[in-house]
Design brief:
Elements: E1 7-8, H1 13-22, H2 25-35, H3 52-60, H4 74-82, E2 86-98, H5 101-108, H6 110-130, E3 134-139, E4 142-147, H7 149-152, H8 156-173, E5 183-199, E6 204-210, H9 212-223, E7 229-232, H10 233-238, E8 249-251, E9 260-265
Parallel strand pairs: 5-7
Antiparallel strand pairs: 1-5, 2-4, 2-5, 3-4, 5-6, 7-9, 8-9
Amino acid sequence: MPENASQPEIGNEELWRQIFHDGHPVLAGKQRRYRMLPGVPRCKLCFAPFGGFGGWVARRIGLRPSNRNPRFCNACDRFIEQFPGGAEVPLSILFCDLRGSVALGERIGAAAYAQTVARMRDTVVEALWRHDGFVLEFQGDSVIGVWPPGFSGADHARKAVAAAREVAEALARTAQGSDPIRAGIGLHTGPAFLCTFSAASGMLQEVGAFGQAMNIAARVSTLAEAGQILVTEAVCDAADQKAAPGALREVTLKGIDEPVRVTALS
């Protein structure tokens, strides 16, 4: 493995299980307080705002984007550095992908395409934030959001569904303009290993998620048509939302051994 390859970090399982599954009391208290402050972007772990008035308040109490990991505040980055590791927890996962991205980029040009991706990202981030989720990762023209119960509560699947609906409705409104955003959304609920991982010879650390549940969510999103929310049966069960009779269908997903039952949300 190259020296600067990304490597998941193992250890401190009890601590990270408390953070991601149960809700660490200190971190949960910070999240509640910082949610009250306006401003984006925010720390990926404690939700301290970096911009706007909230960012000004955060700087007054010594919080700012970490020089090493700018998606985390300096306090959370120190925590990640001191306590690397992770734990397997049940969570809900959202993948939102632009449709027809290659043709769109060729038609409108690279600069306009980048602006379209930025608009989609803003839409998804705002919806995730309002429904207690957080962005795990941006991958090109895709956004990955997660709802671990330690951050989002036991009803994380319901919140993921609500966020997906909000994203779909917001993107549908762009169809009335000259520059519509066409994206498909996939949702799945299942166990994943949430952990810190290091890259660049340890000079950079992030929080990532690994496991079959992540693969299923990604594959389901590729089946969703533009403007469609495609969810697995596991999401329906966890969110206590029964699918209409005959609405569930079995699909074969690349790299997944067993068929998965999915349905489109109306």
